[in-house]
Amino acid sequence: MRHKKSGRKLNRTNAHRKALMRNMARALLTHERIRTTEAKAKELRKVVDGLVTLALRDDLHSRRQAYKTLNNHQLVQRLFDEIAPRFKEAKGGYTRILKLAMPRRGDCAPMCVIELAREGEAVEEKAAEA
User: Fold this and answer.
1) Measured between alpha carbons, how far is 98 from 111 in angstroms, rounded to an integer?
2) What digits encode the pLDDT tens for the residues 18-27?
3) Three state DSSP letters for 17-49
4) Which residues of the chain have pLDDT under 70?
5) Could you say which protein family the record assigns here (predicted)?
6) Could you tell me the residue ranges of all domains in the chain?
C-alpha cells in the first residue's frame, strides 16, 4: 500500500529525479518560464516554491541551502536579490502552471507552461493607478 507516500516518481531513479528537478529549477529561475509536461511541472512547483521561501528569509544559512540545490552562486544571488523581493507580501503561490491545449507530439503527454508569478508587478500597478 502507498499510504502517506508523497510525490511522483516520474519513472526515474532517485538520483535521476533529483538531477531532473535541479536542472528544471535552474532553467525556471534563469528564464522565469519553461515548457514541460504537466506531471514534471507539478513536482517542480514544490522545489521552486521552497527555494523562493528560503530566499525570503534572506540569511546566510538560507543561501547555503539554496546553493545545495542550485549549485550556482550567480543564480543564488539572482534568486535572493531579484526574484524573492517580488514576493515580499505574498504568502505562497510563487509559481503558475498554465495547461497547453496541444499535447506533446510523440507520446501525447499533456503539456504545460510553468512560470514565476509576477506578484510584485501587480502590486506596483495597483499603487500606480491609485
Assistant:
1) 9
2) 999 999 999 9
3) HHHHHHHHHHHHHHHCEEEEEHHHHHHHHHHHH
4) 119-130
5) Belongs to the bacterial ribosomal protein bL17 family.
6) 14-129
Residue 23 grid coordinates: 536542472
Burial-class residue 36 by CB neighbours within 10 Å (0-12, 13-18, 19+): buried
113 - beta bridge partners? 35, 98
Residue 10 corresponds to which cell in the numbers above? 516520474
Instruction: Say how many residues make up the chain.
Output: 130
Inter-helix orientation angle 14-31/38-57, to 10°: 70
Domain 14-129: assigned CATH number: 3.90.1030.10
Closest CA to 116 of 55, 67, 73, 39: 55
